[in-house]
Amino acid sequence: MTSRTKGTSQQRFTYSGLSNDISVIADGSGAIQAKYGRDVAGGLLSMHEGGSLALAVMNDLHGDVVATFTGTALVDSTAYDPFGRITHTSGTKRSLGYQGEYTDPDSGKVNMHARWYQPGTGAFTSRDDWTLTPDPSAQANRYTYANASPLTGIDPTGHETINPINDGTQGYICGVDGICSETFVHAQWWSAYVTSPGYDYYNGPGFSDEEIGRLGGKYMSNGRLVPKKTDNQVIDFWLASKEAQNDFMSKYTPTLSNKSLSIMWAVTAAYHNQYVEVVEGVCVKIGDGGVCGYSATIKSANDGRSAMHRAADEFARQWARVKGPVWSDDIAELYIKFKLGGANEKAEKLVQSFKRAWVHAYRDVIKGAAAYFGVPALILAGVAFEELGGDPNWFDTAKRTAKEALGFFWNKRDLTTSFGNISMQIGVAAETLGYDKSKLSKNEADAIVKSLQNPASNIFIAAKRLADINAHWNRTSTPSGWTSQRARVVARDWNGSGPDAENYADRVMRNQWLVGWLISEG
Questions:
Q1: Per the database record, which ranges form the Teneurin-like YD-shell domain (predicted)?
Q2: Eight-class DSSP state of 223
Q3: Residue 379 near residue 491 (C-beta atoms within 8 A)
């Protein structure tokens, strides 16, 4: 469009360079009616129409002119629906509007260069003379504007839809003016990524042995401080095997407290069968700096437990001082009394109260186990909350004793017997801890049951199982592997499959706000 004539009046249009961006509108005699200031990308920055003052322009992500203002005040504003129909306006109606293009003052049509667009209809007033591939299928319709997706698409030529509006799925929201802003979600994701377990180990430059020695052995090769021992039963970091050291660094995250990191080291050392027996003259020298003075004798635990079982038991030892509520005989009696008396509401309230108290009491244990396996603490706490309130330990033991008396404790049927506050079948726990459940001995089963009945190791084993389920579906170690959808799938698969599992997952996800509060400090 180069000119517009109505009656005896005429408008002439001047464009910026070789672009389709209007820079000046003049009358038939050449007198300037309007001027438009633009950035290097053609984005509209200002306008000076008629006898008014020059005004700054505000565009939305679609490029629509939604407001003009002086240095101190809003002058006018316009709102559009997705397809360009004006839904609200105040002040003066401007020549440039939807998509930042010229709007005919008589017909309301918008000039999109090759064709005119009728706002509100989602369609051009004429057929496109370009033939586009029918992918997406909306392109087969030569009248459709922006492939019927005006929230993310524009048509700056009248021939073809482009999608310059990043909707945030890549971490940024960008407008047609090329200005982008990082989304809050992406900022959170990036923060989570750079503090995720093992980030420094896998992505950092790494300290050499010589540099570690020069720094007095205070830092690991990932640049982080060496973990302190929780007690004399835990091996010194530099005395342990390279495998144990590297495993710990692959789990390290600066989001954990020093106490939690020390416990993580103790558990990692136990997993790798690294223990301290007595202190005597063994010197470890690191690099040319000559770090020395560590002394101990390394021993292994040859008791038949799997590596993960050793880790679970060490985790329980480290958190032994944390005590939570117990589903005691008195509570069980009261619960039965309520149920038999038809006071179901009171019975449910009793269970809910126990659940809340238990999760809150073991909040640090839950967060520690979740961090060790890289699973969200909210999901672990959510599963724990859902599983709690079942049979007390004495009832678990009674069930097992009865089965032993009947002589069929070690058949397949018994491996489905569940134990622990976070209820788990013996067979599932055995696989989670790295045993072959088809060859499980009585001693191994006894040890597994004991671990399930210990709250801390019970939590640890549950966290490992959640990590195993996630690993089945996901191969990435970045935080993107734990979307809300993935968390729901993991919660569902914890329970099995079918409608009951779906309902279980819904409850776990629905309780996120509650368990988040329960595992918070205080």
A1: 4-150
A2: S
A3: yes
